[in-house]
Design brief:
Elements (H helix, E strand, L loop, with lengths): L2 H7 L3 H11 L3 H13 L2 H17 L8 H9 L5 H11 L9 H13 L5 H15 L6 H14 L3 H15 L1
Helix pairs in contact: 2-4, 3-4, 4-6, 6-8, 7-8, 8-10, 9-10
Length: 172
């Protein structure tokens, strides 16, 4: 399979699932996907992020050694929202190595503070921050303040639902 051509051929869940299934547990195929995610043009990067998330759902161990570069890509200026959404979607499910706690925490706080950020990215960021608060209880107050700000300035149903869950976790 010419992975890049297949990614560009069609932008659909069915196509992304087909590509993810083709990658399976194969480290060489995953490396091809990662290279597209890291170095290709906007549309390929965006679509490969979705495939990467689907691969992570079935084979999370494939991503673990690459988490530093994946997180690094998410931190770049001007990165497509699909990259942030899908990387955060993966990070909320995987155990984070301690060396990534700081960069991920900083990104999540920045996403929550950004009034232009999407609801999905903010929702995933809240979940990740709640998980990190287990290790860093000092951040709980800052999370609460940012959630209160979201509820006041961006009270979408998605934000309200996630905020209730995260605030409940922070009390536990």
């Amino acid at each position: 399979m010419d992975l890049r051509s297949e990614i560009l051929a069609e932008h659909s869940r069915a196509q992304s699932l087909r590509i993810a299934k083709w990658i399976g547990r194969d480290t060489r195929r995953f490396q091809q996907l990662l290279d597209l995610f890291l170095y290709d043009e906007y549309r390929v990067v965006q679509r490969s992020a979705w495939v990467m998330r689907l691969v992570a759902e079935k084979h999370p161990a494939l991503l673990s050694p690459h988490l530093p570069v994946i997180v690094g890509r998410m931190e770049e200026a001007g990165v497509p929202v699909a990259v942030k959404r899908n990387v955060l979607g993966v990070l909320q499910e995987l155990p984070l190595p301690e060396n990534l706690h700081g960069p991920v925490m900083n990104s999540c706080f920045a996403f929550l503070e950004d009034p232009q950020e999407t609801v999905a990215v903010k929702s995933f960021a809240m979940t990740i921050l709640a998980r990190l608060a287990i290790h860093y209880p000092d951040i709980k107050n800052e999370i609460r303040l940012l959630i209160a700000d979201q509820l006041e300035n961006n009270p979408t149903p998605g934000i309200q639902s996630k905020a209730r869950k995260v605030l409940k976790e922070l009390k536990a």
